[in-house]
Amino acid sequence: MTSQADTELRLAVMSRWRRSVDELTAGRRRQQAECERAQNALSRVTSCFQQLAASLGSSADSSFLREEMDETRALAHRICSGLSRRLLRLLSACDSAPVACDSAPVACDSAPVAVDDRHAAERLWVLFLSAVENFLSDLRRAKDLIGQFPLTQRSSRRSLVNTGCTDGPVGLAARVALVQIPWLVLEEEPSPDLTNHIASLEAQLGELQQRVPVAFWSVESTQPAWAEVLSDAEDPEESLEDLMEVEVASSGGGSIRLPACCQGTCCWVG
Amino acid sequence: MTIRNALRDHGQRYRPRMACLKKAEKVLLEMQDPCTGVKSQPQRLVITIIPHAITGEDIIAWLADRFQIDAQEARSFGSMLVALGYIYPLQDHKRLVIKPDASLYRFQTPYFWPTQQWPVEDTDYAIYLAKRNIRKKGILELHEQEQYNHLHKWMNHKWDFVVMQAKEQYRAAKERKKPDRVVFDCQERAYWVVHRPPPGTVSAMDYGLDRRTDPNTDETQTPDYYERIMIFTQQSIMRPRVKSSVSIGALVKYSATYSGHDPFLSKCLPSSPWLTDDTTYWTMNMSNVEIPTKMRVERWTFSFKELLSDPRGRDDFRLFLKKEFSGENLAFWEGCEDLKWGTAVTMREKAEQIYKTFLARGAPRWINIDGKTMEITVKGLKHPHRYVLDAAQTHIYMLMKKDSYGRYLKSPVFKETLKKAICPEEHKFNEVQLEQNARNRRPSLSPIIIRQQEQEQRAKMAANAPVDITQLCRFTTPVPHLAVYTGIPDPPSVTASPSLPFLAHTPVCPSPISVALDSTSASERRMEASDGEGNAEVRAPEGGNLSKSRMALSLRRLLKRGCSPSAMFASLSPKCHTAATTSSRIQPITPDEPSQAPPRRIGNFFQIKVDIPPECRIYPIESEDEDEENRPASRDAVVTEEIICPWESLTRQNGTG
């Protein structure tokens, strides 16, 4: 009699436990997906920032460009801080998951799941840190350039380098505005200026590395080499050589298109 | 992760300062001025028109005008700007040179400038390659493919980030207007042509090894920093001064002498390998070449230092000295150099070996240095360090320079070499041949192999060392394992071991005086010199005047005997069995010699008593001298002596090794 009651009790406990584990797993998955989306968004924002920074000091430089840069930077800052918090939470959750698994009386099949989750979380972590590092180097370069080419006076425009670019931020602003991250609206923070931003990012990076002991060499990439070649199914892009064709009026009256960059046979790949 | 680690590991991780970059930036900013800068024109493409293209000839003309230089130099200057990456060519984008015609160039945006503070990141290169992959559907150049694979392997942990960022950057670039897109793509491509050139290209960004300190950081003003400044200024004040007329005169003389030999200022025969990729010049001027070039031989006449620093010249000089029987000077000098520059482990042994071979009483290749220097050297050898033989080395160097060098330049050896020296003809390569040479570039011999060859050569030379003394003894045997002679060897076999191959053939052992007499040019002087003077030179008395007079006494006595010195000393030397006066020739040791213990007669100059204080150890004991004379050929089993270095303790318990 008592044994049957025991078994029933155990089963009830088990099912409740399993349900909670499932809920936990689902919650974690949701968080992971959110972090991945945020990571994509961070990449987008940093690429736009790089495009803007490439025009600093050139003829396309203007105060408008610098304002755009500030806004982009602020957005990146918000994404970074939110993402770092969530990743920390995710990693600590993954840490505790195997512990809960061990205490179950029955061998649970969520153990491999937890390990997978842990791997995924670590991968996201490593990607996040790489992105922050990359962004940091861009920020430093931008700071140096702004220092070197201050646009305070009218005469300083004469020293801007004539690179052929005419206007920079058109189109990029729109792209940046497309970024949709859930916490952007929720967590409003004041955005720091450039120097403080760099300093805080550096500090954050060091701190994050020390707090979370993730072995970055254990993370492997999900794509093999040369995979991105096949990935882009968007509109076929013309190569730089095609873009740089010049029209040469031939003697026969028609016009021949010649590649402007390489006249000789020295490169066939360009 | 390439995050800057908090550890200070004092590693060499920093790019060295390239001072030309700041200067180039200044020039570039001057070029931008709408009035006084370089004239720009729009570049007409099929799809659009892009402004701010400049022609090569305009750039060169502007540079020549601004700096008041001729067209050739302006062209080199312009090429340097292109090679550094401040201007990039629009046509023929892989060749970073300025063509003095209407070919088009454009200025690089400051974001892509090769500034000192921003090192080139591999992550950025990986992103760039991934972007190119996407764009060109995987068709990359060979070196780019290799780099891609390499980076994929080493950056595998962040590869997803790389690909994601590449895609995003690609899409972000598409948002821009067409002309700006083209310009940005050109800029990025030019940036990577400068910083990741194909292998085998001579790149302006090559800088050799990384440095230990970051040139971008300011030096902190610690007390240590100020102390260094103070020491520096104090030393500047203490420095001896030279009149500017004298120093400038020396510079002018140097320039006049060497200008014909400078590969930058004058032609390099047959051709400069850096310009034509032809290595004949190097092979002809290698250190072990049989027939040197005329230019090289001419350099030897400039100064003694030139002669010695050229290995081929040193060989020639060594040959000359061998003929003159004064090779020990050069050998000693080389030994000192070896000691100075050698490893610390072998220093002690080397110092001992040099002392035994060159400096000690009875040394086989005794060098002639003055008493004071000998005193200093021997004192210093008690605690040998790297520079202990410096004084003696300088003395010998000056001796060779003032004496032997002059005679060498007039000698038949030198004249022969000069006659045989070759003067190669200049190469005249055309473009095709130059490109072929560039393709056939090969790396030179590894320095490890070169060092091994040098060591083999040195060992070979040591093995058949030119023995410039007329008599051989076991002390002239090259001792490869640097055996340390210590104490009194009780079993004779122990002492016989190091020099076995030589023992059978060694006749008598000469004393230093005979060596000196035969080999040095100062030998004649010594024989004629008065005793006191000669002795003061040769054996600086460290003890009291007593020993000086005793030594004077002994030498005088010996010289008065009227025999030839060699016979006299032969009689006194350890290995001679025959009566002193009867033989005036050196006799070889009889073949049964090695088997038995050769009874060691102690020559006056070798005996060292145990109870004598260490300082007087190297000087002969006069009391024995008198005794010796009374028993000329007695065969007492006497205490034999090895040459004991003055810094070794005199306990007899020192075994071999």
Automatic annotation (TrEMBL), chain B:
User: Which is an annotated Pfam family here?
Assistant: G-gamma
GO cellular component term, pick one: neuron projection
Annotated membrane topology is: Peripheral membrane protein
The segment annotated Disordered runs over 520-544, 580-600
Residue ranges of domain DEP in the record: 34-109
Origin superkingdom: Eukaryota
Give the residue range of the signal peptide.
Answer: none
GO terms (BP aspect) = G protein-coupled receptor signaling pathway; intracellular signal transduction; negative regulation of signal transduction; regulation of G protein-coupled receptor signaling pathway; visual perception
Q: Where in the cell is it found?
A: Membrane
The cross-references to InterPro entries, in alphabetical order and at most eight, read:
DEP_dom (IPR000591), G-protein_gamma-like_dom (IPR015898), GGL_sf (IPR036284), RGS (IPR016137), RGS6/7/9/11 (IPR047016), RGS6/7/9/11_DHEX_sf (IPR047017), RGS9_RGS (IPR047077), RGS_DHEX (IPR040759)
Q: Where is the RGS domain?
A: 303-418
One GO MF term, please?
GTPase activator activity
* Keyword Metal-binding attributed: no
Alphabetically sorted, this entry's keywords are: Membrane, Sensory transduction, Signal transduction inhibitor, Vision
Taking the first listed entry, what is the main subcellular location of this protein, grouped into a coarse class? membrane
Alphabetized CDD domains for the sequence: DEP_RGS7-like (cd04450), RGS_RGS9 (cd08739)
Query: What is the official name of this protein in its record?
Result: Regulator of G-protein signaling 9
